[in-house]
Task: structure prediction
Amino acid sequence: MDVTKYKDIAPYRGQDVRDAVARVLHYKEAIYTILASLGPVETAEQEKQLETYSKFIVSQLEKVTNYDEFQKYITAGVFLPAIIQKSVENFTFSGLEHLEKEKAYLYMSNHRDIVLDCALIDMALLKGDRMLCEMAIGDNLLTNQFITDLFKLNGGVTVKRTLPMREKYLESIRLSAYFVELITEENKSIWVAQKSGRAKDGIDVTTPAIIKMLHLSQKSKGISFNEVVNNCRIVPVAVSYEYDPCDMIKSGEEVAKLEKGGEHSKKRYEDLIHISRGFKGYKGNIHITFGTPISGEYENSDQVAQEVDRQIHLGYKLWPSNLFAYDYLNNTDTFKDKYADFDTEAFLYRFKGIREEVRQYALNAYANPVRSYLAALEA
Result:
């Protein structure tokens, strides 16, 4: 694999890692600010702990020479444990027995949180002694050099979204070629969301074009569709949050968008606000289910997308928040026994004082995974 062809979109390697680490270390106060955003800093003890954490991160950063080290020392070593400690009850995962330790995979998951989905998948892989994965992220998130450095140090692969239509198409093929070559030639894993943007309504459906582009990027080499699919070893992954810290924001935006005929103009720092809330907000329990690598004969990308959907929908960990929302909206007691100890009044109080349209949208976002799961069972 000629990595120089992809230098503008690939994560940092070699000397670029050291240069980026030097730039990040130049802004030590920014590290303190990020840590402070993960939780309250109201007492002298909390402030002292924060300073200790900051100094520890600086000392660990000085050791980093590649992406795996950044993930182990910084992301999974400090940031994710801090997030889990402050805003998660239990973090669990299953299905790693389907994956071989020395093989690379294309992880394709549902998309709830801008950053945490892939970060938590990587943490599960690290805990399960599996190969870490790079992650595809939109260039709209790379608002300055410091953030760009953090993402590219952390295995971020840049998806260029702000291009004219023709250039965007060609760039999609190049990005897909990077995915395929990374897996088949470099034996490195990568994560991509099953569709562009988060599923704010809780309905997780794969965009077939993502799979189609993988083949288009290899078609000129005479590689068949099924060869590409089998060589990429696509692993569907279901990420299940008990609570979504951004549920009210997402629902309000989506209802407003529907009322405006499908338009929503993002504010300058909107994504960063969502990232911060996703970090800090209470998430309850989180579970990640790794599916089985997709293999066999498929006629087209639609069929592969349907298999990704099937595995994700059956892989959901349905929390009481999902099951109660389903029964509440359908006026049934189908899952009553499964949320007998769940504080339903507190859950409904979460949506108190908001417009009924937004409330209904948010509740449906919690209920829709149950609907998708039941539909997959019947298929």
Remarks:
- The longest helix spans residues 356-378.
